[in-house]
Amino acid sequence: MFHVGEKVVYPMHGAGIIDSIEDKDIFGSIKKCYIIKMLIGDIKVIIPVCDIDSIGVRLIASCDYDKVMEILKGPCVKMDERWNVRYRLNEQTMRIGEICHLAEIVNYLADRDKKNKLSTWEKRMYCTAYDILISELSLIKDLTMSDMKLIVDEMLNLC
What span, in angstroms and rounded, lies between the C-alpha atoms of 89 and 83? Predict the structure, then answer.
């Protein structure tokens, strides 16, 4: 069980801070829910405590910060040349929400975007993965998302 004030990641949505734990009426039954203030979009998400494991919400991965930075400034992992295959695999990986795998996706798509134009779908995925990664790294280092974007862009040689 998480506690108020803990920093968590909701796969495919980004990182946030548990604002409160409240009883909520969900489809006619009262359930204990986490209220999570998300960094992306400055919204609050309500997740029933009983669903937290199946959704994949986890604590932020503080110990992986240096590993993520190495992935971002290192060479890209090899991915399938067909964008639709790559897209499906990356989408499955993003649903798991593991920060190092997310960093590999961001690194690959940033590199591919520099060399070739990404398809519309991959561009959208790149933006989503980038924002999710930035949100978690921001909470790990207690920085604003803007400050973390500068650091990540430097690692990706986007500056």
Answer: 10
pTM score, whole prediction: 0.91
Distance, in Å, from the CA atom of 63 to the CA atom of 80, rounded to the nearest integer, reads 30
- Level-2 CATH architecture, domain 62-155: Up-down Bundle (1.20)
Classify residue 25 as exposed, middle or buried by CB count within 10 Å of its CB (0-12, 13-18, 19+): exposed
pLDDT in tens, 1-58: 899 999 999 998 999 999 999 999 999 999 999 999 999 988 999 999 999 999 999 9
Q: Which of the four CATH numbers 3.30.70.890, 3.30.70.260, 2.40.10.170, 2.60.120.650 does domain 7-59 have?
A: 2.40.10.170
